[in-house]
Amino acid sequence: MMQRPTPPPLDGPRLAPASGNAPRQLIVILHGYGADGADLIDLGRAWQGQLPDAAFIAPDAPEPLPFEALGGRQWFPLEDRSPQEYRIGAEAAQATLDRFLDRELAALGLDDRALALVGFSQGAMMTFQSGLRRKMPPAALLGFSGLLPGTDRLTGIQTGSPVLIVHGEEDDVVPVYHGDAAQAALSNAGVATTLHRLSGLGHSIDERGMVLGGRFLEKAFAPS
Predict the structure, then answer these.
(1) Is 163:188 a contact under the CB 8 Å cutoff?
(2) Which one is catalytic: 39, 121, 167, 178?
(3) Would you call 171 a catalytic residue per the annotation?
(4) In Å, how far are 94, 128, 160, 210 from 88, measured between CA atoms?
(5) What is the pLDDT of residue 68?
(6) Of 8 and 211, more confident
(7) What is the number of other CB atoms lying within 10 angstroms of the CB of residue 71?
(8) What's the CA gap between 72 and 63, in Å, rounded?
(9) Which residues does residue 143 pair with via DSSP β-bridges, in sequence order?
(10) 203 catalytically annotated
(11) 83-108 vs 122-131: helix crossing angle, rounded to 10
């Protein structure tokens, strides 16, 4: 039986700290299905003023879409879009993302206390899948328009990372009830979780979401 080749290390657009200092925080932004890191790195530019000592990176997901003509990448395949597929796919992709996070933190001389994960749609699934299972809790987990894979498999997750979920009430790709379900499941598991449902918003991030996200990250990294 042939072994599946190991995918190359993840990489993508980066932003150095706006302050010009050595990075004190690392904010990793995970794009959605069919996009790439360039699609979301502008979130980092929007937040640099609040987080001048943070480095930002938006890695490209490890797999191309199965239909090359469409371009873009995926963290894991989506065919029937069932809860089981989300869970199995996120679990399978977690190791690749964790290796990337470990490598980036080590290169900067930082640990998970200086890490925030931000994800949109499928990237939000990966934010929750990996962030809730890191050995050391990241400083913050932020999910836009996503869902929580494996809501029935939360035993043993770390509960030290605050979570912010931002979801449009008019989302017709990942309906807003997935945000409600994620908040309920995480809160029941002991994770401090806040949900903002944004009226009139579909499957996207608007200025309200960027402001909420920036304030959340700024608070997470504020000196205690």
Answers:
(1) no
(2) 121
(3) yes
(4) 10, 14, 24, 30
(5) 61
(6) 211
(7) 11
(8) 9
(9) 119, 165
(10) yes
(11) 70
**Predicted local distance difference test score (pLDDT) of residue 2:** 47
Residue 45 near residue 136 (C-beta atoms within 8 A): no
Question: What b/e string do you get for 203-219 counting C-beta neighbours within 10 Å, with b at 16 or more?
Answer: bbbeeebbebbbebbee
Residue with token string 């690392």: 26
Structure tokens at 212: 């909420």
pTM score, whole prediction: 0.94
Which residue in 76, 87, 91 sits closest to 32, CA to CA?
Answer: 76
Query: Helix (H, G, I), strand (E, B), or coil: what is residue 184?
Result: helix
Distance set, CA 136 to CA 68, 74, 103, 105 (Å): 38, 26, 15, 12
Write down the residue that tokens 């009226």 correspond to: 199
Q: Are 31 and 143 in contact (CB under 8 A)?
A: no
**Per the structure block, which two tokens stand in for 164?**
């912010």
Query: Residue 128: is its pLDDT beyond 70?
Result: yes
Of 36, 39, 60, 171, catalytic:
171
